Amino acid sequence: MIRKATLADHARIHAIRMGVREDVLSDPSLVTAEEVDWYREHAIFFVAEEAGEVVAFTCANHQSGLIWALFVDPAHERRGHGRALLDAALAELTAAGHAQAWLTTGSGTRAERFYRRHGWREMGRSIDGQIVFIRALAETDAN
Ligand SMILES: CC(C)(COP(=O)(O)OP(=O)(O)OC[C@H]1O[C@@H](n2cnc3c(N)ncnc32)[C@H](O)[C@@H]1OP(=O)(O)O)[C@@H](O)C(=O)NCCC(=O)NCCS
Q1: Which residue, judged by its Cα, is nearest atom 22 of ligand 1?
Q2: CB of 38 sitting under 6 A from ligand 1
Q3: Number of structural domains, the chain?
Q4: Is 77 in the pocket of ligand 1 (CB under 6 A)?
């Protein structure tokens, strides 16, 4: 089940972000509470639930077309949560008028392979060496 995130989900979302094995945050203070609150209150912030527990989340920026975060609890990977959350976020970006979404992710990761399989195209590298991916938004993920 996918639904909008609420303030009550904060602790579980934080635990998932800190529990991933790839794209580990070297410095947790790089993601501020203000940013997280902004996504929840003013942008796109969905969680996926399994048996009543939050197991994955995504944040997207309806102003810039950025997928800012997509994280799945490692114990609940490969069950379709990543794709379902991404589809939901892309549908919101499409509804907001975007023709294209973008994101950055680490090279050589599961996320890189996941995005390539789901129609994302590499545009180059960001200043910190991450891959910049874009995806056309004429339709949601039909791969
Ligand atoms: C990358 C990531 C988001 C993928 O999430 P996920 O929930 O495992 O993704 P999905 O389950 O939708 O898809 C993954 C695979 O599982 C498969 N799958 C989905 N449901 C399935 C099921 N019921 N049974 C078997 N396989 C299934 C999908 O077909 C897909 O296969 P493929 O990779 O061969 O195409 C997740 O691994 C993650 O959070 N990684 C760490 C954090 C990160 O790097 N995030 C990106 C930063 S922007």
Answers
A1: 79
A2: no
A3: 1
A4: yes
Q: What CATH number does the domain containing 50 carry?
A: 3.40.630.30
Which atom of ligand 1 lies closest to the CA of 67?
A: 48
CB 102 near ligand 1, within 6 Å: no
Does some domain include residue 80?
Answer: yes
Identify the three-state secondary structure at position 55: strand
Domain of residue 55 covers: 2-98
pTM of the model: 0.91
Q: What pLDDT was estimated at residue 28?
A: 67
| pLDDT at site 91 | 97
Count the helices and strands in the chain (H runs, E runs).
4, 7
Along the chain (143 residues), what's the average pLDDT of each consecutive run of 10 residues? 96 88 69 90 97 96 96 95 97 96 95 95 94 85 48
Would you call 44 exposed, middle or buried from its count of C-beta atoms within 10 A (0-12, 13-18, 19+)? buried
The count of residues in the chain is: 143
